[in-house]
Request: fold
Amino acid sequence: MIIRRLASSDSIEAVTALLHDAYAELGRMGLNYTAVDQTDDDTRERVARGDCLVATEDNQLIGTIMFMEPSRTWGGTPWYRRADVAVIGQFGVHPRFQRHGVGSRLLSAAEQLAVMSGAAELALDTAESADHLVAWYRRQGFRFIEYAQWKGKTYRSVIMSKTVERS
Ligand SMILES: CC(C)(COP(=O)(O)OP(=O)(O)OC[C@H]1O[C@@H](n2cnc3c(N)ncnc32)[C@H](O)[C@@H]1OP(=O)(O)O)[C@@H](O)C(=O)NCCC(=O)NCCS
Reply:
């Protein structure tokens, strides 16, 4: 498996398709995460907001994560507005490749970008009711910070954050 930045030669359509596959189960749970049904234009717009990392296996896209350094985080919540907080999002691994360590490795790569950006914290948001995700992020070292209610979402979000250090 290789983790690298999304290249201009990569297919945006493939990223969108990967996200739809990865987030389908959350959609079935009634959680309308943006990645459940975002368009290619949405993907294009979202990857332009920061650094998009991809995981590939045999040249196939199997996972992705977005990293936004502190100067590029939008102020949706007090924690995100802090000058030392970087944010990740649009994070998914193809269902066939989940539980093989791909997500942890993408997260580690984003943590290294956070350290290089000078951030002290790496934050994320997820649905409060997605117990399995909240538990997974806790096991990855994230702690509860605050709640947020994004416009148009069927769920309340939980903001979680992790102190980052050079590894
Ligand atoms: C959340 C998500 C990104 C995690 O990615 P992942 O690749 O499945 O994560 P990992 O494999 O690194 O970790 C998952 C578990 O597999 C275990 N694992 C890691 N390598 C393993 C291996 N070789 N064999 C078996 N299990 C393994 C990990 O220990 C971890 O166990 P834990 O849940 O007890 O902590 C992925 O499940 C996903 O895309 N989910 C759907 C979309 C989503 O929820 N996105 C996030 C929205 S906020």
